[in-house]
Known about the structure:
single chain, alpha/beta
Amino acid sequence: xxxxxxxxxxxxxxxxxxxxxxxxxxxxxxxxxxxxxxxxxxxxxxxxxxxxxxxxxxxxxxxxxxxxxxxxxxxxxxxxxxxxxxxxxxxxxxxxxxxxxxxxxxxxxxxxxxxxxxxxxxxxxxxxxxxxxxxxxxxxxxxxxxxxxxxxxxxxxx
Length: 158
């Protein structure tokens, strides 16, 4: 199995990099993990038009890097909320139906456009709360790791 995190922006904080490395190492038992970063685009003016242009540029960079045939999961605040068991079940269902390549997309601070969302096999929301997109990498990898522990029938604290 291959898991790719496709993200807008680079990790800046060492502790976030350590968290990503930690869960990537733990996941090696089940999957190869890679991270593809696209450049965060400058905002320019702070009006609505400038914001939508920035989102469009970032979304275009994301779309260019989506590999055909991947199971595409896009993190979106308006997406489906799942518990850990449901996420594990979704991954298992997709694996059984023939997917071995999973791409999880984390947008920038202003999100992604409808074109990216429309390509998703799943729009996934972690919460109605807004989280820093850099922190989401660690949170997402932890949940993917937890899902694999669940699927393996192993215990993982609740």
